[in-house]
Model the fold of this input.
Amino acid sequence: MGKENEKTKSLEERVKLTGKLVWDRYDEAQVKQAFAFAEGYKGFLDEAKTEREAVDAIVKSAQKAGFCAYSQKGKDKRIYRLNKDKSIGLATVGKQPLEKGLRIIVSHVDSPRLDLKQNPLYEELDMVLLRTHYYGGIKKYQWVAQPLAMHGIIVKTDGKKVKIVIGEREGDPVFTICDLLPHLSRKAQEEKKLKEAIEAEKLTILAGHLPFADREAKERVKLRILELLHEQYGIVEEDFLSAELELVPASKARDVGFDRAFVASYGQDDRVCSYASLKAMEGVDAPPFTTMALFLDKEEVGSEGNTGAKSRFLELFTADILRAAGKEPSDVLMKEILFNAKAISADGTAGIDPNYKDVHEAQNNAKIGYGVCLSKFTGAGGKYFSSDASAEYVGEIRELFNRKGITWQMGELGKVDEGGGGTVAKYLALYGMDIIDCGTPMLSMHSPFEVASKGDIYETFRAYRAFLEEG
Done:
């Protein structure tokens, strides 16, 4: 009987697909490494709450690691290029000829949030409020009755930029959206569908209450706020028309749980993958293939615009890499390089929540603590709006991760007809390159306080490093 059990166990180990919990594979030293990596990551989250701030933080970190802004005067091996201060590319020239293709990791640095409208200030009932327009996929009810910070820039008539960060420092005022008390909310909110209970036009920011001294003035509170803004920042109301001001949670990244095994913060989708790919790029300085990390904007609204994945920034940066390698760019050469590239679309995915297991198909969805998640495809329904990685490319990545001892899993985003979501993979696939989605599973995605396992975060970094090291 004992021999039969041993044979059965041996067969199961050889042929069955079984996930492995990250913590069961780590020794004490690796647990410490994962926790240490999370500390740096939390600092990045606190520093980079908007796409502009993320790009600033990436530049500062990359420069310390030896990357420099590309200059046609020299043949630098580690270069970066900014795109309008809202997206950025890093590259390290490798040993193999560029014609054999790049190794690309692409993530995004924008997150769901509330943007101020261009003409936001108004006064009502002796209070000043600011009108907003939400950005990306949010649940509106999650953004009321909590402290919010204001981040962004205001461009004045003379072209000067004024940087705004209010609500992050100790002693700073914060902003908030007031909610209706339960005593009066039955008809106004509770009898409505959840998505209709908070109306978009009622996501207005409470911003002031003290009136201007002259009691004969019109809109006295608004006038006093404008006076304060002019005194502190030198701006007038018209300057809001050329501003990008975002309201984000004022909270800091925090450990969660008695054992501190989770990180919770705003903006982990997709700054968890951005930080992991940044650190992977910085740590690989002599790759076999030329490596590139793209940190793009506008993914949460369909990758539109001149700073998103649909822009031509990838082509422009590829031309820089060619020049850095001593080659003259041509259209044919660039197409060949991108066609032969291999890429990872680095984006977070949903982990199975114990409270909402019914929206997941457990056999094919990501589990928290089981490592970085590969997704062969994303999209919705019948694989619409999706890039679908080939079996050959999935096999390559499998072999690499297994050989490198990466803890990984394969997952889809929920049940087939439950919803779905997209990434930037399909926009890079247009060039003919192989690409697969690979990122960190999370709980409470797209909320103001997303949750990820420190083990999954660290395995995401290890996976990206392995990809860049060997491609």
